[in-house]
C-alpha cells in the first residue's frame, strides 16, 4: 500500500486540518466501492430476488457494525490514531472503525490501479459469503409472513412483529435479532403466536411466522375463530 495513503487511513480527521492526510476523503470513496461490490455479490448470489430484498441484504453487509467487526478482526482498529478517550466503547467508536475499514478499502484500490479492485472484491466476497449463508436467503424471499397472513388475516385484524429483546452483536460484525409475533383480532388482543431470531429483523420476524405456521393446533384454532367471525362481519 502507498505509504501516504496508509498513514491517512489510520489518522482520525480531528487530528489534522488537511483532509488528504486523514481518512476523511478515503472513507467516502471506500464506502462507494463497498456498496458496489456488495450489490453485485447479492445480485449474483440470489437470481430473481427483487430490488427491495437486494437492498435489505446489502445493508446487512455494509452497515457500520459489520465493517467495524472486520476492522477488529484484522487489527485495523488498533492502528488508528484518534483523539484522547475517543475509542471507548460507543456508537461513535463503532462508526469510526467502520470508516477506517472503508478508507482501507479505498487505499488498497488506489495503491494498485491494475489489480487493487479485483483483490478487494475477492477479499470482501470471502468475508461476506458466510454471512449470506447464515441469512438463509439462498432460495429466495422470506415467505412465512405471507403464508401466515393468507391463513389468518382479515378485516380489522392485525399481526404485530415486535422486537422482544435487544439484538446481540456477534463476531464478524453480524447481529442476531429477536422478534415476537402477536395477533389482534378474531376475539383476541395481542395473542402471542411465536418468536424467532435471525441476522435481520425481517429474518427474525419470518422465523416467528414460520413457528406459528408449524403450530398446527394454534392455526386451526385461529382459522376456526376467523370462520365464526367472518359471516357476521
From TrEMBL:
Keywords: RNA-binding
UniProt superkingdom: Eukaryota
TM spans (from-to): none
Protein name: Nucleolar RNAse III, putative
Domain RNase III: 1-113
Matching PANTHER family: RIBONUCLEASE 3 (PTHR11207:SF0), RIBONUCLEASE III (PTHR11207)
Biological process terms in GO annotation: rRNA processing; termination of RNA polymerase II transcription; U4 snRNA 3'-end processing
Gene3D superfamilies noted in UniProt: 3.30.160.20, Ribonuclease III domain
Gene Ontology MF: a single term: ribonuclease III activity
GO cellular component, one term: nucleoplasm
Cited SUPFAM superfamilies: dsRNA-binding domain-like, RNase III domain-like
Amino acid at each position: 500500500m502507498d505509504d501516504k495513503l496508509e498513514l491517512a487511513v489510520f489518522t482520525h480527521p480531528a487530528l489534522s486540518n488537511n483532509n488528504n492526510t486523514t481518512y476523511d476523503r478515503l472513507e467516502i470513496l471506500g464506502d462507494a466501492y463497498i456498496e458496489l461490490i456488495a450489490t453485485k455479490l447479492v445480485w449474483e448470489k440470489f437470481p430473481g430476488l427483487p430490488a427491495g430484498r437486494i437492498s435489505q441484504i446489502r445493508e446487512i453487509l455494509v452497515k457500520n457494525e459489520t465493517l467495524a467487526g472486520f476492522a477488529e478482526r484484522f487489527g485495523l482498529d488498533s492502528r488508528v490514531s484518534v483523539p484522547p478517550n475517543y475509542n471507548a466503547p460507543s456508537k461513535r467508536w463503532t462508526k469510526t472503525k467502520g470508516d477506517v475499514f472503508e478508507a482501507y478499502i479505498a487505499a488498497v484500490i488506489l495503491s494498485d490501479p491494475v489489480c487493487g479492485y479485483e483483490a478487494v472484491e475477492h477479499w470482501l466476497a470471502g468475508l461476506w459469503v458466510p454471512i449470506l449463508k447464515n441469512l438463509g436467503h439462498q432460495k429466495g424471499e422470506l415467505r412465512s409472513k405471507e403464508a401466515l397472513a393468507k391463513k389468518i388475516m382479515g378485516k380489522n385484524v392485525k399481526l404485530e412483529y415486535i422486537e422482544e429483546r435487544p439484538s446481540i452483536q456477534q463476531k464478524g460484525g453480524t447481529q442476531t435479532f429477536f422478534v415476537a409475533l402477536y395477533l389482534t383480532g378474531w376475539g383476541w388482543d395481542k395473542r402471542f403466536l411465536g418468536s424467532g431470531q435471525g441476522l435481520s429483523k425481517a429474518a427474525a420476524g419470518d422465523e416467528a411466522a414460520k413457528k406459528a405456521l408449524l403450530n398446527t393446533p394454534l392455526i386451526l384454532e385461529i382459522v376456526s375463530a376467523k370462520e365464526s367471525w367472518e359471516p357476521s362481519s
